[in-house]
Design a protein that fits this description.
The protein has helices at about 20-30, 35-45, 50-70, 120-130, 140-175; strands at about 10-15, 75-95, 100-115. With about 190 residues, the chain is of the alpha+beta class.
Length: about 190
């Protein structure tokens, strides 16, 4: 069961959606924790059938947040997303010789919870403790969130640069020690 804080969170619930919970969870796992705008782009571009009802639910939850609570779209993130199994619709398909085969059509219940990060101070405390945001360097909430995304990109770029520099340093040491010469250790120039 999802626990919600009514001051900063708004939800939308879709019941008896005609698809298995497993197929819906594939998509839900990709959008959990992302911003509202990023989620809409992901759902539009993913090739799964489950994307359309989840897209409608996210859009509905955002409409609830804007109309009922007065939140801004830019401050919304998907804090919780859950898929539960619903009832199974059982039918019979007629077959040869008067027999019938059972058809089971699974349904699922999807819950999407949107959180307004501009009003949630505990979220910023967690960001500061984890090292994403420094003391009052950024005042606007959107800038804080964008700073977190930019720091993640910089961290990834630094990892790539470190690996590249490490490879260059290893090649330089091999060259200095005489281990790496044309045609000796690499085996590229052996064929004549």
């Amino acid at each position: 069961m999802i626990k919600r804080d009514p001051d900063v969170e708004v939800y939308a619930l879709g019941q008896h959606i005609c698809m298995s919970a497993h197929k819906a969870r594939r998509v839900i796992d990709q959008i959990r924790g992302r911003s509202y705008e990023e989620t809409l782009m992901i759902l539009e571009l993913m090739p799964y059938r489950a994307c359309y009802p989840i897209f409608k639910l996210v859009y509905s939850a955002a409409a609830n947040a804007i109309h009922n609570m007065g939140f801004k779209e830019t401050d919304l993130i998907i804090s919780q997303a859950e898929v539960n199994e619903g009832t199974i619709v059982k039918k019979l398909k007629p077959r040869a010789r008067g027999r019938s085969y059972p058809i089971k059509r699974p349904t699922c219940h999807i819950t999407i919870v949107l959180q307004d990060i501009s009003k949630d101070q505990e979220y910023f405390i967690w960001l500061r403790k984890s090292g994403w945001v420094y003391k009052d360097k950024y005042t606007d909430v959107r800038e804080r969130y964008l700073c977190m995304i930019e720091l993640e990109r910089l961290k990834w770029a630094n990892d790539v640069i470190e690996r590249y520099l490490c490879m260059i340093e290893q090649d330089r040491l091999k060259w200095a020690n005489g281990e790496w010469a044309y045609g000796e250790s690499e085996g590229v120039w052996d064929k004549k």
